[in-house]
Amino acid sequence: MYPHEQTENGKDLKARVEAFKALCRSRALRVTEQRLEIFRTLAQSKSHPSAEAVFAAVRKKLPNISLDTVYRTLASMEEAGVVFRVGLSTKARFDADLTPHYHFVCMNCGEVYDIFPAPDSPALLVPQDIKQFGEVKNVNLQFRGICHRCRAAAGEKK
Amino acid sequence: MYPHEQTENGKDLKARVEAFKALCRSRALRVTEQRLEIFRTLAQSKSHPSAEAVFAAVRKKLPNISLDTVYRTLASMEEAGVVFRVGLSTKARFDADLTPHYHFVCMNCGEVYDIFPAPDSPALLVPQDIKQFGEVKNVNLQFRGICHRCRAAAGEKK
DNA sequence: AACCTTGTTAAGAATAATTCTTATATTGGA
DNA sequence: TCCAATATAAGAATTATTCTTAACAAGGTT
C-alpha cells in the first residue's frame, strides 16, 4: 500500500477545501481564513512553492498575513498529512558511503538510519523517464516517520 | 546501473584517501590538509554528520580550520561525487498533490519536476525492513542532477 | 446573542544554517 | 625558487526558520 493514498486530488477545489475543513475539525484545528487560503493556494499550485512563495501568493488575498503564520500552517498541514514537504527540513547531513542505500529519517529528532537494500532490489534504479528532465547525478530515497526512541519518549510524557 | 557505484568503500582508509587525492588532482582541486582531514573524518563516520559535526571533529586535528572551509569543501566533494548529501540543501518546498510520485530536483537552480510512476511501479512502496527503525509517515524519492535548461545555460557561457 | 476559553495570529526580534568578503597563505606548475 | 592561481581563516552578512508577546477570533457554553 502506498504511504499517502490518492483520495483528495481528484476532486475539485471546493470539495478539497471542504475535506480540509473536516480534517481540521477532526483534529481540533480551528478553521481560520489564513489556513483556508494557504490550503487553497497550495492545492492549486503545481510548482512546489516554498513558504516564501506561498506567503507572496496568500498575501494577495490576505494582505496582513505574516510569514510566520505560513510556516506554522505548513508545518501543521504536513503533520496532518495534507501536504508533503519536498526534501528535508533540518540541516544538511553528509554520507561518504556511496554504496547504494537509503535512509529512514526521524521527523522528530532528525536521526538518520541506513537501510541497505537487497542486491537485486529495484529501489534505487534510475527510471528511464527521468531523462526528459535532465542528467541524474544521484538518488535520494528517504522514508520519514517517527523512530522508536521518539515514540517511546512521547508515550512516557503522558 | 546504479547512479553511484560502490568502488571505494570496500577499501581501507589509506587507500580511500589515496583515491581521493587522485580524484582531486584529476579535477585540478588542490590537495590541502583541510580537504584530506575532512575526507578522512567523513570516510570514517557512520553517523551522517552535519557540517557543524564535521567541523567539530576536524578541529581536533586542525584547530584553526573555519566552518566556512568545511561547508565549501563538503560542497565541492558533493560536486565531485565523493560524498552524498542527505536531503535537500535548499529551502523547504511543499506539494499538496499526495498522489504517489517522485521528483527530479535540479542541483543548480533548485527547480522541482514531478514524475508519476506507472501504476504498477514498486518505486514508492515501503519496504518491510524499515519497520525496525520506526513508523513511516511518508516517502521522499528524489533524483538529483542538472536540468536541461541549466545544462544549456552552462554551455552557452563557454 | 453575548460570553468565555483557548487556540491562533501579526509583528518583529531572535536564532540557526549557510554563504560572502577580504586579506593572507599555500599548492603545484614554470 | 618563484609565480600565478586557488584555498584559507576570520568574521560579517545573508537567508531560512522559529520564538516571544500581546492582541484577536473560533467555536462551544450560557
Which SSEs are present, and which pair or pack?
2 copies of one chain form a homodimer.
Chain A: H1 13-26, H2 33-44, H3 51-59, H4 67-79, E1 84-86, E2 93-95, E3 102-106, E4 112-115, E5 134-147, H5 148-157
Parallel strand pairs in A: 3-5
Antiparallel strand pairs in A: 3-4
Helix pairs in contact in A: 1-2, 2-3, 3-4
The structure holds a DNA duplex (30 and 30 nucleotides).
Question: Would you identify the CATH H-level superfamily of chain A?
Answer: Winged helix-like DNA-binding domain superfamily/Winged helix DNA-binding domain
Count of alpha/pi helices of chain A: 5
Give the SSE order of chain A as H and E letters: HHHHEEEEEH
What would you report as the Rg of chain A, rounded to the nearest angstrom?
19 Å
**SS strand fraction of chain A:** 15-25%
Number of strands of chain A: 5
The dominant shape of chain A is globular
